């Protein structure tokens, strides 16, 4: 199944510097910079055709999400992998995200602490850390013990190979998923 990423909120969160690094790691060549607004990158495709990417450098521009969608489309052709796989390598921050997951680790015996969830982030199963206080921490411990899925919201930030959900709120048991 081919997925096209169109969510402007996700696309707005892509950091041009992170995309630049990705392009360099995947053998793209920067051929020109257009003032401080964009850069042009090229790469030879397997069939000998040259592909080109216009990388926007100013997230505040109105067409930034559309331009980033074009970057993902070109990378999908070049890399022969899905846009979701590419996006999961590029995402470093998502504000106001709702996650569903299973609590896989808690700090036993504490009234507050770090909880680890396994949940889907941009199409991939990821480890997500949350710092919770009472009474939410107690709810997370119950979810861990009974293996009940949870839902929560917050700001997702990538740290190393893991994600951290900052400012978690609306942490609830997902009883519909558990019973169904």
Characterize the structure shown:
Helices cover 31% and strands 41% of the residues. The protein has 180 residues and is of the alpha+beta class. A hairpin with a 2-residue loop joins strand 7 (150-159) and strand 8 (162-173). It is elongated, with a radius of gyration of 19 Å. The two termini are 26 Å apart.
Features:
three-stranded antiparallel sheet; 180 residues; 31% helix; elongated; 8 strands; alpha+beta; single chain
| Average pLDDT score | 90
Determine the number of helices (DSSP H or I, runs of at least 4 residues): 6
Strand order of the largest sheet: 4-5-6-8-7
Structural class: alpha+beta
Please indicate the percent range of residues in DSSP E strands (runs of 2 or more): 35-45%
| Subunit organisation of the chains | single chain
Name the helicity range. Answer: 25-40%
